[in-house]
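Supplementary Methods. Inverse-folding protocol.

Structures were first reduced to a discrete structure-token string of length 479. This string, shown here, constituted the complete conditioning input.
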């Protein structure tokens, strides 16, 4: 900076005088303080020839040197360039210096930066300080990015908690009361009906049994009668043992499909003598447990040591929540009851257009056997199959083989209300009644399906072995 700013205060080349007023003042000083000597025969004895104060070139006389200075260095003696003289100006962005040369201005600004960085304890120009500055900027960017990612993760986790019922907003009981109160407010339910239903619900929950108000019984028997008639396009059909249909109620609407499918499966198992030893002592008089009871039963399976990873996902708690359950929870519960079952994971499509023909083939193999003979309607001793996919679960109760050799699953959906299910119970039902149940290959296009199938009873030793195996949960994968 000192070097740059001294250019604004020209110095006399013949004495220490400096000219704050600029080059005009310097010129006046030279002419008055150092006048040209009178011409004589030659230089005085002992005096040397005059020299140019800018380049050092000597001359025979002062006038000769002055002529040299004006011709060679006149731009230094003239007034500084400014507006109106035709030269471009370069102003320093950090002080009031005006330069006529961009290179000089650049050096001047560099001096400003050196002074600033010195005061901040930073050395500019070395590769180490550049790296340090870059690292500081990167660290700050990483910190801001980390804060933003943490915020997004909190929001996504909160959404998942709400979606999967883990937000501590209450479970079956709280949702039932809230929805019944809403029905009263909207005039769809009388206060007297509200109090009656509330009392019935509280009694049901106290005993841990389902109130049966969403149950439709006798559907499999109605299907058997239906297929006994001459049905076109159906070559053969296999049906599971009797199954009661359960649909979602005001207390579990939006999240209870897994529990309702377990109720359907259990209603079939309780009809089968093969499973009496496992189930009769737990479910007296073939009563079906309510959803909060099923939640407690799954928690008990976790306490025994089944599927610790799944238990950790739910923080070992289901009761009092609206948590969704899936195939792993159904498997753990059934195995804890000494029921022999397996999970089959159809983890990717096996047919064109994202279809799963291998799933249909597996179900056909499960229900059919070589002893079926030529019977058109085969009422098998097999329980229904729990089927899970993203966001929903259903129950497979049978399978059709069409005359063109294609397959069609028969499915109970917990989302289907009793009014629709009961249509099939009427003697006058026709082919259109089956539309609710039939699912062809082209109807199942989710990316992944998992099924849980029961096929026998476990010995106490086999139950222990399966509990140990569930420490690292695996499923049979097809393909």
């Amino acid at each position: 900076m000192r070097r740059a700013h001294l250019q604004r205060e020209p110095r006399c080349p013949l004495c220490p005088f400096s000219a704050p007023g600029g080059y005009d003042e310097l010129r006046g000083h030279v002419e008055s303080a150092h006048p040209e000597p009178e011409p004589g025969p030659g230089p005085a004895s002992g005096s040397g020839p005059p020299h140019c104060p800018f380049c050092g070139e000597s001359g025979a006389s002062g006038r000769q040197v002055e002529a040299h200075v004006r011709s060679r260095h006149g731009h230094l003696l003239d007034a500084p360039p400014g507006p109106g003289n035709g030269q471009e100006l370069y102003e320093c962005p950090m002080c009031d210096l005006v330069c006529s040369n961009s290179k000089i201005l650049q050096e001047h600004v560099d001096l400003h930066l050196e002074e600033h960085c010195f005061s901040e304890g930073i050395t500019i120009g070395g590769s180490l300080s550049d790296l340090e500055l870059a690292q500081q900027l990167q660290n700050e960017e990483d910190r801001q990015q980390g804060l933003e990612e943490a915020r997004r993760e909190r929001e996504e986790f909160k959404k998942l908690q709400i979606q999967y019922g883990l937000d501590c907003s209450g479970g079956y009981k709280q949702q039932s009361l809230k929805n019944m109160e809403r029905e009263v407010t909207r005039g769809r339910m009388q206060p007297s009906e509200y109090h009656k239903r509330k009392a019935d619900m509280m009694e049901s929950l106290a005993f841990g049994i389902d109130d049966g108000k969403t149950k439709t019984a006798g559907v499999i028997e109605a299907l058997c009668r239906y297929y006994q008639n001459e049905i076109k396009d159906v070559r053969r059909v296999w049906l599971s043992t009797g199954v009661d249909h359960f649909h979602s109620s005001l207390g579990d609407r939006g999240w209870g499909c897994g529990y309702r499918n377990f109720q359907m499966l259990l209603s079939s198992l309780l009809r089968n003598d093969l499973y009496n030893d496992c189930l009769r002592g737990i479910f007296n008089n073939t009563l079906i447990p309510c959803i909060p009871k099923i939640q407690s039963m799954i928690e008990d399976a976790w306490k025994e040591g089944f599927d610790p990873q799944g238990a950790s996902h739910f923080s070992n708690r289901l009761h009092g929540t609206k948590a969704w359950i899936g195939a792993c929870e159904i498997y753990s519960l059934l195995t804890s009851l000494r029921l022999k079952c397996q999970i089959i994971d159809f983890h990717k499509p096996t047919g064109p257009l994202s279809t799963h023909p291998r799933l249909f083939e597996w179900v056909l193999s499960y229900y059919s056997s070589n002893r079926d003979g030529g019977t058109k309607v085969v009422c098998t001793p097999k329980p229904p199959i729990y089927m899970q996919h993203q966001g929903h679960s259903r129950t497979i109760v049978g399978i059709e083989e069409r005359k063109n050799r294609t397959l069609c699953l028969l499915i109970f959906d917990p989302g289907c209300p009793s009014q629709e299910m009961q249509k099939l119970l009427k003697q006058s039902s026709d082919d259109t009644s089956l539309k609710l149940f039939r699912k062809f290959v082209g109807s199942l296009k989710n990316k992944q399906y998992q099924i849980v199938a029961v096929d026998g009873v476990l010995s106490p030793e086999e139950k222990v072995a399966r509990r140990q195996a569930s420490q690292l949960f695996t499923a049979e994968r097809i393909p």
